[in-house]
């Protein structure tokens, strides 16, 4: 056996999750992208009425599409996953009216956090803004219902590989050196399953290469994760979960009836000490 074929057990990194009910503080959010905690679970962060309206708008959206990039799911919005910058920003511009339609005239919860963070960070001399290029600007979020089969509706993955491979003209690649925060709002959740599973492992570039996922961070095999402890975040409609997207995570399959599992997802992180970028 050559050295490159020797497989090492994944290194275990401790996972620290902070839990709150109702209250969202910008300090907690910033703790995640500073790498001080691994995750934040906020229960009852937004109202049932807002959650139901967004879910209705998603289900009847004229911008609802099946993903065609090998990750099973239905979505409204744009994903930079496996895309060149030029295509991602063009897709974001095209999808913007449909993302806006998810919220109609609601006071929109993702924008609410973005604006609160922006204000708070400004006082600290840090700019927060949507990622952009001459081809356009990222959207505030994308909406997705995962539909993978087997034990995971969304297979175990990390959110960093896709950023590392985003290319130099993507503006985002600088963030991959720091913590990539993944912010998830849940407007609809099944009564059972659909948990966000977070493994105690933050793969390195060498780990990704050995697993054959260096360009995507998706999917990690069950065998690779066999010895790694994990935590399940049991989410309900109206919850928010924010995690360090460098840790392997996935979504367990839903078992509680036909209710849609809907997530509004965005990514953000430090591109420079004085600049945080936000994209989807
Ligand atoms: O749906 C979720 O809970 C997680 C979504 C996620 O991991 C992603 O979009 O990369
Ligand atoms: Fe993810």
UniProtKB/TrEMBL annotation:
Q: Name one Pfam family in it.
A: WelO5
Top-rank taxon of the source lineage equals Bacteria
Matching entries from InterPro entries are given as: WelO5-like
Name assigned to this protein? Fe2OG dioxygenase domain-containing protein
Q: Please report the organism this UniProt entry assigns to the protein.
A: Sinorhizobium americanum
**Upper taxonomic lineage:** Bacteria, Pseudomonadati, Pseudomonadota, Alphaproteobacteria, Hyphomicrobiales
């Amino acid at each position: 056996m050559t050295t490159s074929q020797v497989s090492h057990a994944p290194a275990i990194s401790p996972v620290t999750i902070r839990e709150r009910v109702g209250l969202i503080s910008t300090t907690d959010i910033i703790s995640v992208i500073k790498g001080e905690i691994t995750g934040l679970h906020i229960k009852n962060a937004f109202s049932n009425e807002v959650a139901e309206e967004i879910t209705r708008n998603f289900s009847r959206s004229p911008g609802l599409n099946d993903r065609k990039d090998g990750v099973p799911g239905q979505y409204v919005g744009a994903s930079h996953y496996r895309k060149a910058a030029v295509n991602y920003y063009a897709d974001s511009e095209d999808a913007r009216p449909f993302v806006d339609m998810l919220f109609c005239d609601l006071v929109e919860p993702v924008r609410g956090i973005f604006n609160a963070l922006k204000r708070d960070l400004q006082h600290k001399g840090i700019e927060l803004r949507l990622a952009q290029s001459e081809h356009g600007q990222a959207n505030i979020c994308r909406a997705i219902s995962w539909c993978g089969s087997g034990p995971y509706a969304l297979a175990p993955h990390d959110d960093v590989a896709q950023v590392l491979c985003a290319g130099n003209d993507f503006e985002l690649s600088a963030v991959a050196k720091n913590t990539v925060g993944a912010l998830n709002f849940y407007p609809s959740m099944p009564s059972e399953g659909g948990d966000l599973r977070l493994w105690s492992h933050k793969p390195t570039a060498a780990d990704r290469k050995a697993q054959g996922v260096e360009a995507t961070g998706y999917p990690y095999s069950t065998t690779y994760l066999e010895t790694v402890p994990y935590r399940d975040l049991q989410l309900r409609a109206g919850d928010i979960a924010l995690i360090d997207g460098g840790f392997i995570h996935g979504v367990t399959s839903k078992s509680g009836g036909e209710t849609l599992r809907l997530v509004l997802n965005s990514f953000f992180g430090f591109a420079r000490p004085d600049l945080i970028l936000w994209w989807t």
